[in-house]
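Re: beginner question about structure tokens

> Can someone show what the tokenized structure looks like for a real chain? I only ever see the sequence side.

Sure, here's an example I had lying around. Input first:
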Amino acid sequence: MTTEGKEQPEQGVRGEVSQDRFVAGQDLTRWKSPVGRVLAGAAQWITTLLGPYAALIITLAVGLVIAVSLAVAFGEVYESVTEADGVAGLDHPVLDAARSVRSPALDLAVTAYTNVGGTVGMPIIAVGIMIALATKRRSWTPVILMLTAGLGSLLMTVLGKPLFGRTRPDLADAIPPYEQSPSFPSGHSLNSIVIAGIVAYLIILRLKTAKARIITVVVASAFAATMGLSRVYLGHHWLTDVLAAWILGIAWLALVITAHRLYLTVRTRRSGAVLS
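And the corresponding structure tokens:
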């Protein structure tokens, strides 16, 4: 089908195989490491039995178990570090610096901004983007990836807070409305970097120019960075809570993107057959 003489890009499964496979000239379905080739073979085997979407979901589920395990292990290391002098020595000086630049107008603006990444704002934004991407691409892939990415970051937050129970900064140093849940990890920071990251990844897959890809990465990074720093400014989290959340979020994003690469690999290998 053409519009004004121009061929329209394929959508759906065929669009995923033809458009999502290459990013900046790199073939995402090529696995250079032995581990990658083993994973691709396993995904192919699961696809043969259950279908490509099932393979994607199973891979993401396994990745989620790994991510939560990593979060627990990371929390143990984090707890040791924050009780020592190392990185934890940044917490109080950074909070003091944030307090020194506060003003009523800035407090109001940062509070409004941080609400975007909260339990109401972030889900609304994520669901809206997810529906838009799924509709445009005519594919369930954005739904599966975004739901799984969000679920993983939520689980790490929910499990991490009571497990380690780190105390937030004193209420005297915080800006209301106050929060009473434990401080580690910063849910706003973790959720924002995961959601912004997976959205940026899905968009970059369809971008054709390096400039557009760079702008997308910069915007997503700026959103995640400022959301995390807003939590420190408001005195709702220590800096190390935010740093830990960013590290966990990046690790989880890497697992989700790997799962999608495996999905693309099995789809590409099936491209000669009838695509479901």
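Each token stands for a local structural state, so reading them left to right follows the chain. The chain is about 70% helix and 5% strand.
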